[in-house]
Amino acid sequence: MEMKRVIAVLDLPPRRASQNVRESYEAAAKRWGAEVLWIGEHLQPVHPFWQKMFVCDHVHRKVGSAHVLQLDNDMLIRSDCPSPFDLLAPNQFGLVAERQSANNRIDNGGWQQRAQEIWARRCAVRPAPTWLHPNGGLYLYGAEMYGPMFARIIRHLIPTWGASDQATDESLIINQLYNDHPGYITFLPPDFNVSMVYSPAWATNPVMQSYVYHFVGRSKALLGDCRWQRRDPPELPFPGNGQTQQLMQQWRNDPPAEYDIGPIFTPQLAANLLAIYPELIVIGQWSDEPARLDRRMLSHTETGSSHLVLTRFLLQLGINARRFRLRVKEDADASLQLTGT
User: Fold this and answer.
1) In a designed cystine with 290, which of 32, 306, 314, 336 is the match (CB 3.0 to 4.6 A)?
2) What CATH number corresponds to the domain at position 37?
3) What's the superkingdom here (predicted)?
């Protein structure tokens, strides 16, 4: 018999899920052949970070053996989002990496390392490598296989006095996973949990540019303005870009695998194309003499600030920048070289 698919949401007062969150989850469940289990009562009299550890057992007692997508209640799922259940088997533990912003440290140090080491000492386990630190809010797992792991985490509740600091649920889960099931940790594409606190330009734009948005911290105030339902034709994050409109009419629902936008300056065209065509690779051209490519770069060339244009361009693309390829022209006579981002 096929294993049930359950989207489990800890939805506790006073911060209940908003209407658009509920609608996006229910619509996703219908598309994916899953059911949504809204957990509206406290599972235990402990901090919500710790209550997340009790969700697996709660689901197992309610519905039996299940493939569980455990979500926070401050996320939106775009209406064309593919099913994460189809990407991983129940014996794999799926999560999304916390590394999503070039403005943060991307080495193996920083607060993630400190948090995991502190919790490792408290729980007497090995700390997971820093790069494994997850972006909290989305965990995908088989309840039967990972129930014992969550039970082991819960045993640390009383000895640690229920502390709720140092990225509690992320550190507890990844450390225990690393100790119990290191070979089954599997990263989903970042599209499945995009942190809006790391993507402020996306958070303030009501048109979703990827599949799943997570409105954490100060970005929560923007959740209500975000539109998860994709229209036909799709809304554009930058609707005033005429070239995008022309390409949409030309391609309709059959875009090429790659498209070259030529010299880059502003991100609107690339951002639009990457947002509405999730598989498209966009190529752009850059030069060490940018004014040769675009006269708007003259002032930046004069002031030695052309690198800021490139930096801003890539930051505006957010996680979609991984589908952007930069073609570098080293000088007027040099051959063009394609580099990935």
Assistant:
1) 306
2) 3.90.550.10
3) Bacteria
Judge whether 47 lies within some domain: yes
Residue with tokens 């009383």: 158
- At 238-277, the pLDDT tens digits run 999 999 999 999 999 999 999 999 988 889 999 999 999 9
Q: Does a structural domain hold residue 215?
A: no
What are 178-199's pLDDT values in tens digits?
999 999 999 999 999 999 999 9
Instruction: Report CA dihedral (245, 246, 251, 256) to the nearest 10 degrees.
Output: -100
